[in-house]
């Protein structure tokens, strides 16, 4: 079927022919931004609803995890490195940006290796990499730990808030309160995981599934493929993004994940605690685990706000349905993480959607 | 000099300061006005209106493909003058250096500034140096102030824009911003990208006419931010054609990979020109006639329908709002 489809016009005509009231979730934050950036909702028939899923690593970081990072960054002698998007995510008592302004050492970086290099150059400081991201990002952190071990860097550790996509999807579909007919599955994460881990969605829950790329053509073709699965009641995991994803994934990256990390229960913003959905450091690398090195205790209470990020991540609300959206909550003064992140659904709606 | 790096005593105002100024700054910047060695340089006046601008440069890394902080500190200020319609004439430069900064790097930066200024026909007529303790700075910061002369009839203010005026960009976008990101060595890719850092006055000065409504150089925040500023200042809007915007395939490929949008990436050698519909074809032809404007393109127009907003008509026929960015551009982590 996909081979016959050539142009955007063909894709849209195909989608309109098959359209009926359906709800599809794009799991990945990059999909959310691409859909908004290309204005694809303007092209789709009104019956097809696109929901943003829990695929933005900044958005799903819990308030209590942010508070933990704030506590650690405030300790004397500690320098905390993280990705820029994390800086403005609010915890209960401020953000990394606000404590940096008050004197904490918080540095923006683009990779864990950059952080490791800083640790080599500053042996008198304790350097902590605050890692967020899914299976795409975590292998690069594993490489940094491998190099730290090889070069005997003993002032470097990782505060791992990395998460696994599949347990979150499991929690979403088994929760029963979200009517989702199909998933546009994440292209980048799937380039690591391959196809198999998602099979349960089709097999056990009758969800249409397409691993999709990030151009307008990719996304429209992904939607058309989802519609065909629903039409034929033939639910399976298809790969639209063949140029980026092998069915078996990336064995080397998977080996890094398996060696350096271990699945642990973790709390997702909006979704709550999900067993085996986090990536903690494996026992053999405990010396690099910031939780152990600094005796950090998880589990602080979340302080509720009027922010609807939780419902938005579950596909229960759209950003514009949040009472704070574009009023008290804007990219300049974000209340929730979905408005902070460059991959967040609220930021996408704010920048492109209105 | 005996030492190989900046010492606190280089900033103390004594012999070492004098030696530094003579052996590095005056050696490279040499010109009759600077040679006066007065507390304030004297220069002849000229008929017309003066334009004055100042800018500070804190780029990291200091040396990058296509330029360095010295070249950038001259081009940036020259371009602010050029888009104001001024012919750049004089520059001052102020250096804040960190203790321990290698003198060999300082000399390379100063030589690069001198070379760029010579090529631009602008004289560096005054300067200042300060040294801060190690750890209090980031190698070197440079502030330049530029003076230029504006011909009588020229007034490029956004208030002169009218609905129907054309938007012209002098070339593809994002080369500087992405080159700097890549040159920091923290991206998971290597590239052959080169900054577009260049002085634009020779490209822009010949365009001068009342039919040019406004000019800007889209530096930090890129084209999208520059047009948003113009929209807010004028109370008018813009409608851009995505397909008409010139693209650099290397920039677009890497930006796509990183989740960045070239319309928001910084440029250091591009100008956006708003011209009347009648003048637009002439302006476009003139720009394309210059090596720095070969890929100039007419990318959209000023509208009265969406006050304060910049809209992009996408290749798919959809429209999206190009908003002012809220913070710095960051590669995706997903």
From TrEMBL, chain A:
Gene that encodes it: hypD
One Pfam family hit: HypD
Keyword Metal-binding carried by entry: yes
A Gene Ontology BP annotation from the UniProt entry: protein maturation
MF-aspect GO terms: 4 iron, 4 sulfur cluster binding; carbon monoxide binding; iron ion binding
Similarity-based family: Belongs to the HypD family.
Keywords in alphabetical order: Iron, Metal-binding
Native source organism of the sequence: Thermanaerosceptrum fracticalcis
Protein name: Hydrogenase formation protein HypD
From TrEMBL, chain B:
Gene Ontology process terms (BP): protein maturation
Domain PurM-like N-terminal, first and last residues per copy: 48-150
SUPFAM superfamilies referenced in this protein's UniProt entry, alphabetically: PurM C-terminal domain-like, PurM N-terminal domain-like
Residue ranges occupied by any PurM-like C-terminal domain in the UniProt entry: 162-308
Residue spans crossing the bilayer: none
Pfam families named among the record's database cross-references: AIRS, AIRS_C
InterPro entries: HypE, PurM-like_C_dom, PurM-like_C_sf, PurM-like_N, PurM-like_N_sf
Family of the protein in this entry: Belongs to the HypE family.
Protein name: Hydrogenase expression/formation protein HypE
Organism: Thermanaerosceptrum fracticalcis
């Amino acid at each position: 079927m996909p081979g016959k489809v050539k142009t955007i016009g063909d894709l849209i005509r195909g989608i309109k022919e098959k359209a009926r009231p359906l709800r599809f979730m794009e799991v990945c934050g990059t999909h959310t931004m691409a859909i908004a950036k290309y204005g694809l909702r303007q092209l789709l028939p009104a019956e097809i609803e696109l929901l943003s899923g829990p695929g933005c690593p900044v958005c799903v970081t819990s308030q209590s995890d942010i508070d933990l990072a704030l506590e650690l960054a405030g300790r004397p002698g500690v320098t905390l490195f993280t990705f820029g998007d994390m800086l403005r995510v609010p915890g209960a008592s401020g953000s990394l940006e606000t404590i940096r302004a008050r004197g904490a050492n918080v540095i923006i970086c683009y990779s864990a290796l950059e952080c490791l290099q800083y640790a080599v150059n500053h042996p008198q400081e304790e350097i902590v990499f605050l890692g967020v991201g899914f299976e795409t990002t975590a292998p690069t952190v594993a490489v940094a730990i491998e190099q730290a071990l090889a070069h005997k860097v003993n002032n470097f550790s990782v505060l791992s808030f990395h998460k696994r996509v599949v347990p979150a999807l499991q929690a979403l579909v088994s929760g029963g309160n979200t009517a989702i007919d199909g998933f546009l599955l994440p292209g980048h994460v799937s380039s690591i995981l391959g196809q198999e881990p998602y099979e349960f969605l089709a097999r056990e829950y009758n969800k249409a599934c397409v691993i999709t790329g990030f151009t307008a053509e990719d996304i429209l073709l992904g939607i058309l493929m989802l519609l065909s699965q629903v039409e034929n009641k033939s639910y399976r995991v298809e790969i639209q993004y063949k140029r980026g994803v092998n069915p078996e994934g990336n064995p080397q990256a998977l080996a890094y994940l398996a060696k350096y990390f271990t699945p642990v229960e973790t709390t997702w913003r909006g979704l709550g605690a999900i067993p085996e959905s986090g990536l903690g450091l494996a026992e053999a690398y405990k010396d690099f685990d910031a939780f152990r090195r600094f005796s950090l205790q998880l589990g602080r209470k979340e302080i509720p706000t009027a922010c609807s990020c939780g419902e938005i991540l579950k596909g229960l609300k759209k950003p514009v349905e949040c009472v704070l959206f574009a009023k008290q909550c804007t990219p300049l003064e974000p209340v929730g993480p979905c408005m902070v992140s460059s991959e967040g659904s609220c930021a996408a709606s704010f920048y492109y959607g209105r | 000099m005996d030492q190989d790096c900046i010492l606190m005593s280089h900033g103390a105002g004594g012999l070492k300061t004098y030696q530094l100024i003579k052996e590095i700054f005056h050696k490279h910047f040499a010109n009759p006005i600077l040679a006066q060695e007065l507390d304030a340089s004297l220069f002849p006046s000229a008929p017309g209106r003066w334009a004055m601008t100042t800018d500070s440069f804190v780029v990291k890394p200091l040396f990058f493909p296509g330029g360095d902080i010295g070249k950038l500190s001259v081009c940036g200020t020259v371009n602010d003058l050029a888009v104001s319609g001024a012919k750049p004439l004089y520059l001052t430069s102020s250096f804040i250096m960190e203790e321990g900064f290698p003198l060999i790097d300082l000399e390379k930066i100063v030589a690069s500034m001198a070379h760029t200024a010579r090529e631009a026909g602008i004289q560096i007529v005054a300067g200042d140096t300060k040294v801060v303790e190690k750890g209090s700075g980031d190698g070197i910061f440079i502030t330049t102030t530029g003076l230029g002369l504006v011909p009588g009839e020229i007034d490029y203010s956004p208030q002169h824009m009218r609905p129907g005026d054309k938007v012209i960009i002098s070339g593809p976008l994002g080369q500087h911003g992405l080159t700097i990101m890549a040159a920091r060595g923290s991206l998971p890719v290597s590239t052959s990208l080169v900054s577009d850092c260049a002085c634009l006055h020779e490209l822009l000065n010949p365009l001068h006419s009342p039919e040019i409504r406004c000019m800007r150089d889209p530096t930090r925040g890129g084209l999208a931010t520059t047009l948003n500023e113009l929209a807010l200042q004028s109370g008018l809007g813009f409608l851009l054609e995505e397909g008409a915007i010139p693209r650099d395939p290397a920039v677009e490929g890497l930006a796509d990979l990183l989740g960045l949008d070239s319309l928001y990436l910084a440029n250091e050698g591009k100008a956006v020109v708003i011209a009347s519909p009648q003048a637009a074809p002439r302006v476009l032809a003139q720009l394309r006639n210059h090596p720095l404007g070969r890929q100039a393109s007419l990318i959209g127009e000023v509208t009265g329908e969406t006050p304060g907003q910049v809209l992009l008509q996408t290749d798919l026929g959809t429209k999206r709002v190009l908003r002012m960015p809220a913070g710095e551009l960051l590669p995706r982590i997903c």
